[in-house]
C-alpha cells in the first residue's frame, strides 16, 4: 500500500550482525523516535539503558541462557518499565504517590512495548536489524542488580541492534481471519484456520532448516504452554513495588 506498510510487513528478527558500529547519534535518534510513541495519560513510563561495557554484556548474555548476539551485537539496549521517575515527580510537589496498582504495571509495560516498537521500526527504516531479547527475564533479579535498577523499575526486554549479516525469510503470521474479527469473538472456524496455518508453518521450518525441523505452530505452542513460564516473575515484581493491588 505504501513504503511504511511494506516495511512493517517485512520485519525479521536478526541474530547475526556485521562488525561495523552503530554510532551514538543514530542510537539517540532511534530512542527519540521511541519517545514519540503513544503513551497512556502522558505517563512516559519507559527508560532505556544502553549497555556497552563488554563485561556487563557478557553477564547479561549468561542471564539469557547464552544468546551470543547479546554480547556480539554492535548495540544492546534494555527497555525498562519505569514508575520510579513518577515517584520523584510526586515528591517535587510534596505529594505521596500511591503505587503498586495493577493498572500502573499495565500502563508502564504497555508504554515500554509501544516505545520499543517505534525504535525497531525506525531502526529497520535505517537499514538496521534487531531482535528482542525476552530472555533477560530468565534471571531478572540479576539483571536488575547489574543495571542498578531502583524500586518501581523492571527490565521488560532487551534489544540487539546492528547492521544485518543475514537475510532470513519473513516468518508467516496467523491468517488475518484469525486475528481480525467483526462485531464479536467468533471462534467457530478457528480449528480449521489453525490447521491450515500449521501446514504453512511446517513447510516454512522445513524449507528454512533443510528438512531438519518440521513442526507446526500449534505443536510449538502446545509444547511451550504445558511448561511453567518464569514463575519467579510475580515475586520479583512484588519486590519492585508492582502488582500489589
Automatic annotation (TrEMBL):
Record keyword Amino-acid biosynthesis present: no
Ranges where the Nitroreductase domain occurs: 9-162
Entry-linked InterPro entries: Flavin_OxRdtase_Frp, Nitroreductase, Nitroreductase-like
GO molecular function, one term: oxidoreductase activity
Database matches in Pfam families: Nitroreductase
Keyword match Heme: no
Gene3D superfamilies from the UniProt entry: NADH Oxidase
UniProt keyword terms in alphabetical order: Flavoprotein, FMN, NADP, Oxidoreductase
Family: Belongs to the flavin oxidoreductase frp family.
NCBIfam families on file: PRK10765.1
Protein's name according to its UniProt entry: Nitroreductase
Organism per entry: Marinobacterium lutimaris
Amino acid at each position: 500500500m505504501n513504503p511504511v506498510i511494506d516495511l512493517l510487513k517485512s520485519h525479521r528478527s536478526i541474530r547475526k550482525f556485521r562488525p561495523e558500529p552503530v554510532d551514538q547519534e543514530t542510537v539517540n535518534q532511534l530512542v527519540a523516535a521511541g519517545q514519540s510513541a503513544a503513551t497512556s495519560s502522558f505517563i512516559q513510563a519507559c527508560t532505556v539503558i544502553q549497555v556497552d561495557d563488554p563485561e556487563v554484556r557478557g553477564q547479561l548474555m549468561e542471564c539469557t541462557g547464552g544468546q551470543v548476539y547479546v554480547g556480539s551485537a554492535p548495540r544492546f539496549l534494555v527497555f525498562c518499565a519505569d514508575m520510579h521517575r513518577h515517584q520523584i515527580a510526586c515528591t517535587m510537589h510534596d505529594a505521596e504517590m500511591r503505587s503498586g496498582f495493577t493498572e500502573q504495571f499495565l500502563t508502564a509495560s504497555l508504554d515500554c512495548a509501544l516505545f520499543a516498537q517505534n525504535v525497531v521500526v525506525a531502526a529497520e527504516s535505517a537499514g538496521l536489524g534487531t531482535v528482542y531479547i525476552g530472555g533477560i527475564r530468565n534471571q531478572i533479579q540479576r539483571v536488575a542488580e547489574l543495571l542498578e535498577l531502583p524500586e518501581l523499575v523492571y527490565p521488560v526486554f532487551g534489544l540487539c541492534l546492528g547492521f544485518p549479516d543475514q537475510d532470513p525469510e519473513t516468518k508467516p503470521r496467523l491468517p488475518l481471519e484469525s486475528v481480525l474479527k467483526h462485531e464479536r469473538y467468533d471462534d467457530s472456524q478457528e480449528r480449521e484456520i489453525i490447521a491450515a496455518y500449521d501446514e504453512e508453518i511446517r513447510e516454512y521450518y522445513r524449507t528454512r532448516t533443510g528438512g531438519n525441523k518440521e513442526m507446526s505452530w500449534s505443536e510449538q505452542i502446545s509444547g511451550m504452554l504445558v511448561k511453567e513460564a518464569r514463575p519467579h516473575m510475580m515475586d520479583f515484581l512484588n519486590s519492585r513495588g508492582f502488582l500489589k493491588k
